[in-house]
Amino acid sequence: MKGFVFGMAAAAVVVCAPAFGAGALLTQINASDLIVIGETADAGSVANGVLSLAVNIQGTLKGSAPAGNLSVHFALGSSGPQTAISGVAGRCGIFFLVQDAGQWSLVPRNQPQFTLGDLFYPEGSCGAVAAPASPAPSADGIVTAVIQAIQSGTPSDQDIIALFNALPPADSPSVALAAAQISSGAQRGLQILSLGWRLSLGEDEALGEVSAWIPALNQSAIGVILASAVSGYTGTTAAAAKGLGEIAMQGSGTGFEMPASMALRSLHTAAALPYLLQLLDSADPRVRLNAVAGLSMSLAGVPPLTSGASPQAVMEKALNPAFRKQLSAEDQAHLQFASLGDAASEAALIAWWKIRAQQMVAAGQ
Asked: Residue 207, SS3?
């Protein structure tokens, strides 16, 4: 998530079973031998660092499950709770399982933090998701079931962040459909999930909706979804530059200014120049560096960092004079991509770029 923190201390992550990182739902699906819709039938128990509980199978999405209850396990590790996990009994959702030495083990969702909800995708109410009678659903069908499970209740911020991390829109057409179907009247977390997905899909219109969320989300953990989606935005239209610029201005002094400046830095378009010029006055030195780097790349004629482009390849072109436009010695001397230098050097650099950027804006470069 590019290192953004929104009012939530980083939780310790313990590797204790197959666990996956960002974009991992399809990997989790492929790694599982059995995926079921079920309800925890008991309160579970912990012995020797292993959680054991019974799951009543209500439907199967992958594999072949026995009727009735299934005993499942999860290795909590030495850093996990050694007595019990609260709120275990009577929880419904989608469980991912692998078979190991004759036992079924839970495959946790993104980065378990030792609540039961970290070990599966919860339903809002039992029976909210129904497995098809036949045939077994495809991976995309399982993705659809997971989204339905999350939408069926009042998911926690943690549930929403986990699903956003695990399911980039490019992984499944179900994501774009779900993003479009979540209404403005939905629960707050679902609205943010939808907006984050729409940003990831490159919808310029979605950028215009972010500013309204900034005051409410600046100190909220779930704000990281929009910050991450904004920082990685790769649209190069004038509307994209305007939307990102407005987020940067509205987000001044918040956790949204930096990600918006990162995206503006990557556009290298004339429409982005007025906003980069304004960001030279930011109180955040990282934002000022992004403004200088973005202006430098625009002046040097470096191509935009569009979707699918390699950031490393773009930076190599920025640093290699052979790929740049022919520049004057003065322009060449003021190109900067990685550092602003000491205070005196930065002040001189910023002052020079304010003048040069105004010329670039006037010329429509």
From this structure: helix
Instruction: Tell me whether residue 70 is in a domain.
Output: no
What six digits make up the tokens of 209? 């909706």
By the 8 A CB rule, do 242 and 263 touch? no
HEC sequence for 276-344: HHHHCCCCCHHHHHHHHHHHHHHHHCCCCCCCCCCHHHHHHHHHCHHHCCCCCHHHHHHCCCCCCCCHH
Q: Under a CB-based contact definition with an 8 Å cutoff, are residues 42 and 54 in contact? A: yes
Using alpha carbons, list the distances in angstroms from residue 22 to 28, 111, 158, 274: 11, 10, 14, 34
Looking up tokens 């609260």, which residue turns up? 86
Residue 226 bridge partners (DSSP):
none
Domain count across the chain:
1
**Predicted structure pTM score:** 0.83
Tell me, yes or no, whether 183 lies in a domain.
no
**Single-letter code of the amino acid located at 250:** Q
From first to last of its 365 residues, the chain has per-residue pLDDT tens of 344 444 432 222 222 333 444 458 888 899 899 999 999 988 788 888 888 889 999 999 999 988 789 999 888 766 666 666 666 788 889 999 999 888 999 888 755 555 666 778 888 888 889 888 777 889 999 999 999 998 888 888 888 988 898 888 888 899 999 998 888 778 899 999 999 999 999 999 999 999 999 988 877 889 999 999 999 998 899 999 999 999 999 988 888 999 999 999 999 999 999 999 999 999 999 999 999 999 999 998 887 866 555 666 666 666 676 666 788 999 999 999 889 999 999 999 999 999 999 999 999 87
Distance, in Å, from the CA atom of 324 to the CA atom of 302, rounded to the nearest integer, reads: 7
CA atoms within 13 A on the CB side of 103: 14
- Is 197 part of a structural domain of the chain? no
Spatial CB neighbours of 229, under 8 Å, sequence gap ≥ 6: 195, 196, 197, 199, 200
Q: Is residue 274 situated within a structural domain?
A: yes
Q: Which domain holds residue 256?
A: 236-365
Cβ proximity of 151 and 190 under 8 Å: yes
Q: Which residues pair with residue 97 across a beta bridge?
A: 34, 106
Which element (helix H / strand E) includes 27? helix 25-31
